């Protein structure tokens, strides 16, 4: 060991001495420098980390001097080799902390060499160009791509400026074996474009990759120079100044794909485009599975296939992509090759055969069943993605037979492959909103005699969820595609009722004691899109559909606060709950659009009224959130209704106003949002915006006892806009609110009632008898003294404005018995009490 250490130290000292001689040798001429380089070649493969660092420091010193007539390329290549080796050792993960730090330091030294490399040094172009290009495409050098891109860009720009004027800038003739390592133009475009799709990954490769792409335009294709001189600076301006958190990833991908489309239209060469398709398919393994880069690569490959007009090649590649499960690529190609993509999926689907496996190979049988079920689910998504990208007229001509029909066929096949009973499959009977069959969780095979293990049950549940989510997403995507193609009014989907029954069955089968999967969310989204297609459902059917959806999600238990189940679990549950409620909001919006009238809106709100009266605060919170989403959607579409006024403003204010004093701050804020939407519908928002907004903000105060003050101020602002014709609707709704199980909500309802009569009582002469009748009935059933006082105060308000009418009306009624009179009777004509 001691001898080995001495030998290692001697080699390090030797290399350091050679490094010290570099500058003097460079001054003397190329021969001396070449001898130093040849001496260092002897230790390039030395396994010692210390020797490796010494060689890298020698290389850095060498590259800072003139390297003309010096065969130093092996030393440059060694920089990339050492970086790759260090990355591999770190990836293995079995290093001690000290050893891991050595590898990190070695990588940092490699990067420092490239960062400090000055390509203007004499002879550097001859040495590096075009050899450095071979390190752009391989994935193991991604960590070096930022400085590498800078070096190559500067080299390319120097060559463009030099032209034929400076022969010193001409690169050496590259040997045939070296040229074989160089990437094709299509490989460079593929790599740099995909890297730019995740611009902040790997140290921020996006901007350097795009700048290099522009510098290499002549190397990529002679036709793209002028186009890229405009398009790439635009992409750079979009990217610069946007941090990772501020960048809209979807919009950035759209811009890059648009850039690719424009480039392919400019190039036109079908042979070149075929080469690009080949390179994109070859680079699929260079990126982590499910990464942003891989997802973009698939989209770019689909777009490239769409631009390729060589039918046999497209047919061959699409079929191979189906075999490899490349759904997004296949869908992208459908834009120009719809029939080919559809044929490829159908051909692959027909090739999936059932094969009997003996009981001795139970594990193999289960594996094959899982594989076949996975293929069927992948094909379901393939059909729906193709529909999204298909040309409109071609899609509508075959959507039912060739797309939706095959999706259902593969859904049935998945059920059969996995041994699910017939009760889990799509019922052929028309959808009945009352007696819709409940699709239970998929049972294990009926012929199994031994009880399943917990692991088997968990696996069956996961497959159950995956299949339901897959069908729901496929239905949603095909429905979206039909709407985009104008098919919602032109084509009737005969499978619609069958699909509705299946989706509602999925929803009913979900457990009522927890939100454990995205099935509800996906079903709500699918129902929303499906509802827009013909044949349209009746209003009664839509009413029942919404009622079933509300009963599926509203009574779920309250979410556990973060920390009780662990921060990660709680965060995931809250995210799933938020997404599910968002999907419900989209569903109620879609159902509202089916009959955009105030009458249908009121029917939908009456369904929610059941949950607004719940004693459980989390159920009221969900109902208020859905009310806010529904009223917001109606507000945005009010002009389309053709109605001059909103005839339910009074009843809606009376229903929702008391909840500004609910126990949950989120509920209070949703109630405030509802009132804001109602004011917008009445056209009063601009008049009150400056006054109302601060009051809405006060509703989030944690001090519940102080909520009556902003509630009272809101009442004074809003009640004056209730039309006299809607007075009794408001009063009846407010009196219902006084029966709330939440005392502050009941008091708020009483405050709003009294404030309305104080503000608008002078206009109620024709309504006195009707209002007193309503109050008289409630006086008999309301037992709480504090709430009965609001009723007497309301009568006092009416008597102040209309004493004769009030007295005449009261004389015609049997007065309440003394035992009910715990509050002093109002005196006709007395001044009303001051309102706080």
Could you walk me through the main structural features you see in this protein, from its secondary elements to its overall organization?
The structure is a single chain. The chain has 836 residues and is mainly α. It contains 37 helices and no strands. The chain is 67% helix and 0% strand.
Write down the overall mean pLDDT: 81
Annotation field: number of helices: 37
What is the end-to-end distance? 92 Å
Question: How many strand segments?
Answer: 0
Rg result: 37 Å
Q: Structural class, from helix and strand content? A: mainly alpha
Give the percentage of residues in beta strands.
under 5%
Backbone shape:
elongated
Mind summarizing the main beta sheet?
A: none
